[in-house]
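so i finally got all the pieces together for this one. its two components total, 546 residues if u count the protein bits. some of the lines might not be protein, just check the labels. i wanna see the whole assembly predicted at once instead of chain by chain like last time, that was a mess tbh
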Amino acid sequence: MADEVILLDFWPSMFGMRVRVALAEKGIKYEYREEDLRNKSQLLLKMNPVHKKIPVLIHNGKPICESLIIVQYIDEVWNDRAPILPSDPYQRAQARFWADFVDKKVHDAGRKIWTTKGEEKEAAKKEFIDVLKVLEEQLGDKPYFGGDHFGFVDISLITYYSWFSAYEIFGEFSIEAHCPKLIAWAKRCLQKKSVSETLPDGKKIHGFINDMRKKLGVE
Amino acid sequence: MAQSESQKKQRDRRKKRKREKEDQNQQEEEKDGNGGEDEVLRRDPFEVFGRDIMLKILRNLDARSVALSLLVSRGWHSVASSDRLWSSKTRIMKDDLCDHVWEFHFNELHGAWASPFSCRVVWALKLKGIPYENIEEDLPNKSKLILQYNPVHKKIRVLVHGRKPICESMIIIEYIDETWPQNPLLPSDPYQRALTRFWVKFAEDKGFAVWTLFRSSGEEQEKAKNESLESLRTIEEHGLGNKKFFGGEEIGIVDIAFGWMSLWLGIIEEIVGVKLLEAHLFPRLYAWTKNFKEVHVIKQNLPDCHELLLLFKGVREQALGSSSSSS
């Protein structure tokens, strides 16, 4: 019996991208279904009744929600190839912590850069850079957050990269100027097929954010 | 910091031994015993360093660092570096439980005994029968212990005092579950694990509103109240369903994650004068709080109700006293 894998997603979502990268890393075939977030499908509402959000992975009819939880699920089910989390419990705890950190810190600060103006925007920029600097320090001299191999924390953060150029334009700053090592890391990740074929072009994201800003009335 | 210092010590010791060994080998080959330096290296280190320095060195050694600094073979080193080898022999101290979230909500680390986040970790340890002691001893290897059992760096503390503290207690509990597999707190099936993690995350993300309710007044408090009620509805309907515990017949990690509702929620309700978890509105969840508190390990490891009430009263008075709006 072949596995049936469906992904309910939204193309610019950095959360959805994480799942796509994980699936690509493991070489899993799946059906991608684009959701219109202003008109959510019955399937999405049924599969994620609590949050009604994407991404949702449906594996043989059973739904799994929350991007990092989905990535861990993928790692546990398809455990015969390309491990995403380390095998040592201590290192797994570290990986979970940093992925959680990315979730809680990067997203909110980044979002404020394109949704606010003036002083609020400047504060958001500063917070965003501070957060990236902490991550850069954590990376240190390792090629990836996972050490020698691309792993959980790398997946959780790299998907923001396609949003970086948009943040830079709206925030009027250069991320590379503040965190060169992090940008070097991102470019290293982009050399992997699973990442380069998943992440949309920065210009597309910029266009998407422009439309969002008009809708939200931010100008 | 401590880890890199001890690692540096290990590296230095390794280097020193390696140099000594190399020199020894070289000498054996040459066999002409020339130079005062070679002589020193062949002497007993106790003689060279003297008693005082040797004692200082030996005091810092524990079995683990000795095992790690011996150059036997790669296989030896990989076994010696495994956390699992050393974890069961050492004790976990209360200080090892770093409690950022409690600090965040209470602005100080006062009343760490009262923290539901630390309690969770204690419950997990006790459920697995892992020796845990509440003694404040000044062990020379204390810093190593902290890093061993607190899988999250303390230096992150500064950044956690923002709008969203990162609660490591659940990450620590997963670590505990993976390190000591007896009495598992997570199911073994990947799909069930994913569901379990979903509810743990829900508990973390949504539990926040209740603390906001506790610390605020007026409109902010009203908003927090509605959010909390909404969360309780979701938990009752989708999370607990008809099960006795979130973990099924026995408590599991999700029960531990929601454990604060069994005692702390009631205290907050009493002090703030707002009833959230009412039996007629949330019958199953209400029953769960009763069942949860009856579990032996939990019953034995809950802070005293009255003392908790006093502590929270004081904190709320302070929180409201510093704000200009009145409830």
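Strands of chain B lie at 92-93, 132-133.
Residues 2-30 of chain B form the longest helix (29 residues).
anyway lmk what u think
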